[in-house]
Amino acid sequence: MRVLELWRFPVKSMQGERLAEAEMGAEGIVGDRGWALFDLDTGLGLTARRVPELLFATGRLRDDGGAEVVLPDGTVTTDGTVLSDWLGRPVALRHAGTVHGPRYESPDDDEVAAGDTGSAGTTWHEWPGGAGAFHDIAAARVSLITTGTLGAWDRRRFRSNVVLEGPGEGGLIGSQVRVGGVVLDVNDPIARCVMVTRPQPGGIGRDTSVLKTIHRERGGDLAVGAQVHTSGTVRTGDVLGPA
């Protein structure tokens, strides 16, 4: 397998940045999921599970190491008032280092939530996020997916950090692999939720069949999560092999 694409998503649930090379450390690709929007009324971190509009904005890193948001109309901002006006609720952009014990929401029924793309008719539960960068799962600081697994699906639906050219990533589970200057401990497959059905820019429409197919054919899992064992640099074209 070789690295076909590298992706960093600076702001949780927003579009990200395609990279030619990426530095990886203990929390995954440096800057990945380092920021998130938080609802000032509820205190909850926002994701596109609950607020699908987030996927139509882009998070990107600035030269000074901070993050900024590019709104659908092209406005570039970090200002809470501007972001609140866009979403119609009071929000603030926060760095992971300033938030302790983040909490998010997920629907009790993914298929209902996928059908209404919002909250109507859906009940929700809160769940705790891990410490550090705003990844859903601490054991999946880096997510990997292969072209063999993707098939005809657009890889942007799954928001993986590393897209590999190869037949399938399932055989990597439980192994230690080297890619470029990085060693990864590959852990469990990633359980999928309503996020994969959400519409996105670039002609990706709402598609509830994606999640239904993943549940029917793959037991609800797609892609694998990994932790960084040895920090370093990964580049497009690097070959993945045993550590």
Features:
243 residues; mainly beta; M1 Pyruvate Kinase, Domain 3; eight-stranded mixed sheet; three-stranded antiparallel sheet; globular
Description:
The protein is mainly beta and 243 residues long. The protein has a single domain (2-242), classed as PK beta-barrel domain-like (M1 Pyruvate Kinase, Domain 3). It is built from four helices and 18 strands. The protein has helices at 80-87, 110-116, 147-150, 209-218, and strands spanning 2-8, 17-19, 21-25, 28-29, 35-39, 58-61, 67-70, 76-77, 91-95, 103-107, 124-128, 142-146, 162-165, 176-179, 182-191, 221-230, 232-235, 240-242. It has an eight-stranded mixed β-sheet. Strands 4-3-17 form a three-stranded antiparallel β-sheet, with no helix packed on it. The protein is globular. The two termini are 14 Å apart.
Q: Strand-and-helix sequence, N→C?
A: EEEEEEEEHEEHEEHEEEHEEE
Helix proportion of residues, in percent? 10-25%
- In total, the number of strands is 18
> Which structural class do the helices and strands define?
mainly beta
Give the N-to-C terminal Cα separation: 14 Å
Strand-residue fraction? 35-45%
What's the number of domains? 1
Question: What is the radius of gyration computed over CA atoms, rounded to a whole number of angstroms?
Answer: 17 Å
